[in-house]
């Protein structure tokens, strides 16, 4: 199936709210467990004061969990959509968990790769969940990582992978999005069409000079990219 890009930023407040209201807790827990296992395996658990960056953080699903897991680290969620960040900050204010080390910044990935940022080479862990497929120029993610990651930093990215056929798209929609609001279903279908294949991501990494990062297919719908810088 050919790739069909979707809009990059989720700027529409209704779209952002539908996303923030959806229950992705199983998926988010899955992401955090895989990341934690990976860091433990490498012996690279973030230390107090270390910076963890969550790119394309949306309403903060993953950022909050990272901060909950390692409360003494600094977690920075970055997104280009102010609508998403408003929801993330709202959730942070209401959270029963202490999220003092968590902060958010509104920035497009392209502004991070220019080098004109205070964040250069500062993060010991850089993650993203469901960001890559939004990008019209996917190299922006890999360039951003090169700018933000400290030497030896761990990177971990999970995204949808593009199904082989429109029949598979419908199967995934019926399996994972039944009873969801129509706006969420619309976005999910757009995301599956916009997602990359394993080979395409391997090609991106090669061109970015990041051959040390590994890409694998996980379950029936994800790609994971991970490694050290
Ligand atoms: C599908 S959401 C994922 C949100 C969150 N990571 C999660 O796991 O729930 C993708 C997010 O990436 C953001 N995004 C897309 N392109 C971006 C870019 N070029 N720069 C910054 N953020 C971007 C969107 O605004 C949106 O909030």
How would you describe this protein?
By secondary structure, this protein is α/β, with parallel strands linked by helices. The protein has one domain (13-228): 3-Layer(aba) Sandwich (Rossmann fold), CATH 3.40.50. It is built from nine helices and seven strands; from the N terminus they run ααβαβαβαβαβαααββ. The chain has helices spanning 13-21, 25-42, 61-69, 82-94, 109-112, 139-148, 166-176, 182-194, 198-207, and strands spanning 51-55, 74-79, 102-106, 123-129, 149-160, 214-218, 222-228. It has a seven-stranded mixed beta sheet, sandwiched between helices. The longest helix has 18 residues, at 25-42. The two termini are 32 Å apart.
Which descriptors apply to this entry?
7-stranded mixed beta sheet; globular; 21% strand; binds S-adenosylmethionine; alpha/beta; 229 residues
How would the blueprint of this fold be written?
Elements: H1 13-21, H2 25-42, E1 51-55, H3 61-69, E2 74-79, H4 82-94, E3 102-106, H5 109-112, E4 123-129, H6 139-148, E5 149-160, H7 166-176, H8 182-194, H9 198-207, E6 214-218, E7 222-228
Parallel strand pairs: 1-2, 1-4, 2-3, 4-5
Antiparallel strand pairs: 5-7, 6-7
Helix pairs in contact: 1-4, 2-3
The chain binds S-adenosylmethionine (SAM).
């Amino acid at each position: 199936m050919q790739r069909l890009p979707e809009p990059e930023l989720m700027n529409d407040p209704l779209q952002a709210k539908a996303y923030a209201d959806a229950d992705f807790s199983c998926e988010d827990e899955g992401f955090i467990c895989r990341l934690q296992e990976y860091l433990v395996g490498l012996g690279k658990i973030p230390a107090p004061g270390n910076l963890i960056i969550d790119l394309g953080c949306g309403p903060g699903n993953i950022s909050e969990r990272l901060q909950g897991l390692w409360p003494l680290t600094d977690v920075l969620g970055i997104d280009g959509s102010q609508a998403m960040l408003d929801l993330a900050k709202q959730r942070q204010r209401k959270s029963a968990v202490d999220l003092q080390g968590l902060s958010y910044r509104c920035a497009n990935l392209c502004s991070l790769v220019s080098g004109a940022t205070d964040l250069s080479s500062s993060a010991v862990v850089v993650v993203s969940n469901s960001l890559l497929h939004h990008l019209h120029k996917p190299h922006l993610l890999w360039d951003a990582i090169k700018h933000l990651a400290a030497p030896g930093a761990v990177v971990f990215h999970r995204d949808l992978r593009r199904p082989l056929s429109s029949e598979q798209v419908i199967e995934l929609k019926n399996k994972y999005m039944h009873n969801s609001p129509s706006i969420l279903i619309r976005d999910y279908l757009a995301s599956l069409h916009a997602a990359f294949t394993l080979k395409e991501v391997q090609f991106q990494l090669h061109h970015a000079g990041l051959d040390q990062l590994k890409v694998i297919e996980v379950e029936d719908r994800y790609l994971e990219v991970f490694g050290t810088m």
